[in-house]
Amino acid sequence: MSDKPREYCGIFGIADHPEAALLSYYGLHSLQHRGQESAGIVTSYFDEEKGRKVMPTYKDFGLVLSVFDKPKIFKKILKGRSAIGHNRYSTSGSSKNPANIQPFRVHYRSGNIAIGHNGNLSNAKQIRESFTKNGVLFQSTSDTELILHLIAQSKKEQQMDQILDALGQIEGAFCLVILTDEALVAVRDPNGFRPLALGVKDGAYCVASETCAFDIIGAEYVRDVEAGEVLVIPHNAAEKGLSPSELTSFHISPKDGTATSQCIFEYVYFSRPDSMIFGEMVDKIRRNLGKALAKEHPIHEVVQKETGSKPVIISVPDSSNTAAIGYASENQKMGFDCKYDIGLIRNHYVGRTFISPGQKSREQKVRTKFNPVKGVIEGRSVIIVDDSIVRGTTSQYLVNMIRECNPAEIHFLVSSPPIISPCYYGMDFPSPEELIANRFDRDIVKIAEEIGVDSLRYLSPDGLVNAVKEANPSDNDYCTACFTSKYPVPVNFGAEKEENELV
Which tens digit of pLDDT belongs to each residue from 170-188? Predict the structure, then answer.
């Protein structure tokens, strides 16, 4: 339904807590925005009857609330004091393959191991081809299975050494939660593309893609897992009372001396505004993006007609709400009279299966999800603030709906630059030729005509980076490849995502 890029996954893990599976469930619920195709949890415990450690698994297609809808799942199946969980978004083809639902769990010579992955391996094609030549069989089309094969085929004797050996052979974007018979292992790739945070709940350590997963379970944020860090949390960490400094930590180095490249789009759109990622609150960053947009495109340069009423600024809920507030407040600070108001109401109860076979048009889907408030819009100069435009179809339908409310004029402001390139680091973008900026050769006037607005303005690439760094001063750099085509880590551009699909 959404004409936005999609994040591939959300991950969560917790070690040494009596309600590990239930806390994972709540954590995944908070991370639902990062993946809605499927959800899964794996736990670890010693089975007295079998006389060995086991890893029960429960996973299925659907949202977290629908997958884990029976109390017996937690009471009888997902036993144990340590767990990892995963939400997945996939391309349409791979969503049909149950083998792709994570976490993956296997048993091999060093015991049980389970893994959940957020991101995308840029050298996956080469690794897969090498395994295929050696007769390796695959159950899934996911990059994540390649990591398990690398671990299993490692010549190292100790399991942790096998994991480190495998991590040294993969490239791209990867945040991992790995569950072994002895520990929970949290991994963030050397370039730090995706966020991963460490928290503590009742003395038990937990990790999550975003800190909103800590808030729902009452966990305390400790720190970010560092770029290139492999953090080992023993299953008895809480029992032993281990402090954060007493946890074992390894580090893997980036290939070819590449620098830290945190995904700037996490701040623009993906992450929840109530989360802290890369060391700063998302809400603070988005407000600053709105302020930067106001400095580059103040309202007196945008509005063309005198209506006798204040220009009204509205957001496209929910991801652009705080950017719109920042834009309005900065304009007011600069002395330009305007008003922020709720001009679009979002229906939060639209399920993925809501649309009937006779209502397949994107326009109907947009109308199902959004409805304009006529009293806010009629007769006024309307400035729509959104976080991004991808194909432009949703923007076009939204503008048409707002036009029906008889505004004096409509202007569209975007708190990020035009998207011109695909992502190879764990986001799902349309092909380059589908992107509206490319379809119109980045001609802003033509794009404005296509979506039906009186004018269109974007935040500049420098304005985006400067606004983020101003709100979050650090030595870390950001990946802006989707806006600039500058890829910080080499990728195999011939690779098809999740090819050789099993259906």
Answer: 988 899 999 999 999 999 9
Instruction: Tell me the fold of 281-484.
Output: Rossmann fold (3.40.50)
How many angstroms separate the CA atoms of 499 and 69, rounded? 32
Cβ distance 238 to 15 under 8 Å?
A: yes
Positions of CATH 3.60.20.10 in the chain: 8-259
Q: How far apart are CA 274 and CA 284, in angstroms?
A: 9
The DSSP bridge partners found for residue 198 are 207, 223
Helix pair angle (143-152, 124-133), 10° resolution: 50
pLDDT of 252-288, one tens digit each? Answer: 988 776 788 999 999 999 999 999 999 999 999 999 9
Distance of alpha carbon 12 from alpha carbon 276, whole angstroms? 15
The residues annotated as belonging to the active site are 9
Q: What is the CATH number of domain 8-259?
A: 3.60.20.10
**Under-70 pLDDT residues of the chain:** 1-8, 90-95, 257, 350-362, 492-503
Domain ranges in the chain with CATH number 3.40.50.2020? 281-484
Q: Kindly state the helix (H) or strand (E) to which residue 234 belongs, with its residue range.
A: strand 229-234
CA distances, 395 to each of 175, 353, 401 (Å): 32, 22, 10
Contact in structure between 5 and 387 (CB atoms under 8 Å): no
Contact in structure between 263 and 273 (CB atoms under 8 Å): no
Distance of CA 436 to the CA centre of its chain: 22
Instruction: Report the alpha-carbon distance of residue 90 to residue 325 in Å, rounded.
Output: 32
How would you class 108 by CB atoms within 10 Å of its CB: exposed for 0-12, middle for 13-18, buried for 19 or more? middle
